[in-house]
Design a protein that fits this description.
CATH class of the domain at 61-128: Mainly Alpha
Helix content: 25-40%
Strand order of the largest sheet: 1-2-3-4
Distance between the termini: 42 Å
Structural class: alpha+beta
Number of strands: 7
Largest sheet: 4 strands, antiparallel
CATH topology of the domain at 61-128: Arc Repressor Mutant, subunit A
CATH architecture of the domain at 61-128: Orthogonal Bundle
Number of helices: 4
CATH superfamily of the domain at 61-128: Winged helix-like DNA-binding domain superfamily/Winged helix DNA-binding domain
Order of helices and strands: HEEEEHEHHEE
Shape: elongated
């Protein structure tokens, strides 16, 4: 088992090849277009964020940062991990960039000290808290 999902022996027709490709593509799990966590819904096709029924205007990086937080709920994420996964390995930025984006994301989501979705974890980074 070397990872092959299908095999066609020669000779074969182009129609058979196309049919098998389509069949294998149907087997693949489809990526979700919508992610909902803790009253926040991200729509990846429309690139929108809805919180408590209201549209939240996010920049591209804020959207990607929130997406990464929502895909990793209740997990302490270091600033370096966030930089690598949201900005990319080849992107040269300061770790304070993450802090500034988290600050504006908190403001836009209406985070307050008593009801904080994005928690600061001292000496580590941040955690998207879902209860």
């Amino acid at each position: 088992d070397l990872g092959a999902d299908d095999y066609i022996s020669k000779p074969f027709s182009v129609l058979e090849l196309v049919s098998r490709i389509k069949a294998n593509l149907r087997k693949r799990p489809k990526k979700k277009d919508i992610l909902s966590v803790a009253g926040i819904t991200l729509n990846f096709l429309e690139h929108t964020c809805i919180k408590d029924g209201k549209l939240v205007d996010l920049t591209l990086k804020e959207f990607e940062l929130l997406k990464y937080f929502m895909e990793n709920p209740n997990k302490a994420l270091s600033r370096d991990e966030l930089l690598n996964n949201v900005w990319g390995y080849d992107y040269i930025v300061e770790t304070r960039t993450v802090d500034m984006h988290v600050k504006t994301l908190r403001e836009k989501l209406g985070d307050s000290k008593d009801k904080e979705l994005i928690e600061s974890i001292r000496s580590i980074g941040y955690k998207f808290s879902v209860k």
